[in-house]
Hints:
Layout: H1 2-10, E1 12-19, H2 21-25, H3 29-39, E2 42-49, H4 53-59, H5 69-76, E3 81-89, H6 91-99, H7 112-116, E4 125-127, H8 131-141, H9 154-157
Antiparallel strand pairs: 1-3, 1-4, 2-3
Bound molecules: inosine-5'-diphosphate and magnesium ion.
Organism: Salvia splendens
Function: Major role in the synthesis of nucleoside triphosphates other than ATP. The ATP gamma phosphate is transferred to the NDP beta phosphate via a ping-pong mechanism, using a phosphorylated active-site intermediate.
Protein name: nucleoside-diphosphate kinase
Amino acid sequence: EFLYHFAALAKMEQTFIMIKPDGVQRNLVGEIIGRFEKKGFTLKGLKLITVDSDFAERHYADLSAKPFFNGLVEYIVSGPVVAMVWEGKNVVATGRKIIGATNPAESAPGTIRGDYAVDIGRNVIHGSDAVESARKEIALWFPEGIAEWRSSAHHWIYE
Ligand code: IDP
Ligand code: MG
């Protein structure tokens, strides 16, 4: 039994999710957190924070050559964001599905961007695109570390 649960926990992933300044200004924080919570994922880190351009440039370093990079950085520093770590089986890929396609014009209804966004440059939310980028982003945004806890609903979500 112990080994069984150990194996199940070892498969747990973490992802970095950020509600961007437009999501905070548009009062979508509760709605967005609710979607991850109700799915069955576990909240392991959460803070409201305003970052500077240096920090935003580090977060989006991979996109520094893109023509929209400066506008993207200006957007991210334009107000407080909600930085979160969510944990669960397959949470990186499933989180991206919950969020929807990068361009809200192509995000399916039922996804966060499909339901709440119109323009690609105001698409409400960020989610890590791979386990490795999630690890880097969590280290960048939560240098203080995250919460150690296990939900009492665990057995009702995982078999
Ligand atoms: P993702 O957020 O779905 O992972 P990325 O390609 O990593 O998409 O781009 C990061 C962010 O940069 C997007 O969420 C969006 O806010 C912005 N972005 C991406 N492409 C464009 C564009 O063509 N014009 C303006 N902003 C863009
Ligand atoms: Mg991305």
